[in-house]
């Protein structure tokens, strides 16, 4: 059994057996535990789970979006990535500009009411088209505030200066690989009210030893079934990209979670995933002609040998 799936499935089993029932912001309800850590040896393969298909191209486009410093979902929509749509959509339907049918609590209602789900999908389609083709609308309702890309690439300090945290890490690795300050922080307390979703993966740190780059990322809140597989793959890819930029091999990826939970409407899906046998992990190949991580495109990152079980659908709690 590959260790990536094993440690992830062990976490799922632990929450189901030992977790505590809790209410949450979305009204869905969770089974939760506090404080959990997973470790992945990136030399053993790329940790894209095989017990369900994880759409790698969505992982790639989201990470490239972060690295661009972008906060508008237009880039994601242009790359057929819809994992952030609900937050921009919520911003629109809660505004005075929205004149369509009532979309309150759309995340839950769309799962329970087929007639409402049809209306929701119609309004979401309108939203997506307007973000793609209406610049003013895109600026107002496609922009999610100062989320990850802004914090990673354009952190605004109390001194009035703007800091590129990713570039700082790259420069510091090359200058002083033994540094204990290879840290990026996305949690800005003064900007939480302006963000559609305050950062869940709020900080990460790199560590260099024996010519290998390792990364630990920290999450205040983890949706184990839908979110965590993406987060693991995204930070693994980020580690590969920074290792490439800094002429290093990859080492270990470490996840540390605080409130680690399974939503109550994901339990059946988790149990289905637990019944599946893991398969060999894939690998990735980067285009060596690209000189900077900021210049990578979707076509420059290739996934090799991915043979997972089929996808398992589940609703997103918004």
UniProtKB/TrEMBL annotation:
What EC number is given for this enzyme? 2.1.1.45
Compartment(s): Cytoplasm
Q: Alphabetically, which GO biological process terms does the record hold?
A: dTMP biosynthetic process; dTTP biosynthetic process; methylation
Chain positions recorded as (6R)-5,10-methylene-5,6,7,8-tetrahydrofolate binding sites: 223, 317
| Pathway this chain belongs to | Pyrimidine metabolism; dTTP biosynthesis
Q: Give the UniProt family note.
A: Belongs to the thymidylate synthase family. Bacterial-type ThyA subfamily.
Protein known as: Thymidylate synthase
Protein's organism: Peribacillus cavernae
Instruction: Identify the gene encoding this protein.
Output: thyA
């Amino acid at each position: 059994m590959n260790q990536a799936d094993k440690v992830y499935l062990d976490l799922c089993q632990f929450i189901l057996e030992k977790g505590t029932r809790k209410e949450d912001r979305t009204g869905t309800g969770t089974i939760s535990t506090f404080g959990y850590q997973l470790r992945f040896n990136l030399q053993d393969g790329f940790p894209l789970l095989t017990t369900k298909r994880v759409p790698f191209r969505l992982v790639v486009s989201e990470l490239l979006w972060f690295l661009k410093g972008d906060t508008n979902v237009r880039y994601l929509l242009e790359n057929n990535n819809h994992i952030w749509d609900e937050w921009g959509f919520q911003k629109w339907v809660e505004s005075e500009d929205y004149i369509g049918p009532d979309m309150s609590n759309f995340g839950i209602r769309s799962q329970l009411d087929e007639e409402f789900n049809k209306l929701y999908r119609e309004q979401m389609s309108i939203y997506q088209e307007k973000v793609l083709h209406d610049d003013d609308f895109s600026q107002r309702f496609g922009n999610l505030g100062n989320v990850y890309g802004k914090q990673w690439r354009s952190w605004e300090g109390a001194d009035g200066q703007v800091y590129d945290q990713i570039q700082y890490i790259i420069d510091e690795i090359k200058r002083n690989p033994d540094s204990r300050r290879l840290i990026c922080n996305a949690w800005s307390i003064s900007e939480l009210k302006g963000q559609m979703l305050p950062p869940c993966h709020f900080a990460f740190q790199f560590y260099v030893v024996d010519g290998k780059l390792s990364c630990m990322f920290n999450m205040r809140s983890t949706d184990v079934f839908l979110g965590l597989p993406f987060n693991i793959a995204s930070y693994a890819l980020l580690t590969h990209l920074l290792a490439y930029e800094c002429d290093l091999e990859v080492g270990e990826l470490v996840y540390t979670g605080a409130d680690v939970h399974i939503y109550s409407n994901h339990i059946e899906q988790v149990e289905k995933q637990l019944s599946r046998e893991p398969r060999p992990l894939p690998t990735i190949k980067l285009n060596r002609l690209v000189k900077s991580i900021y210049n990578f495109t979707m076509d420059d990152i290739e996934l090799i040998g991915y043979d997972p079980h089929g996808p398992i659908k589940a609703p997103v709690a918004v």
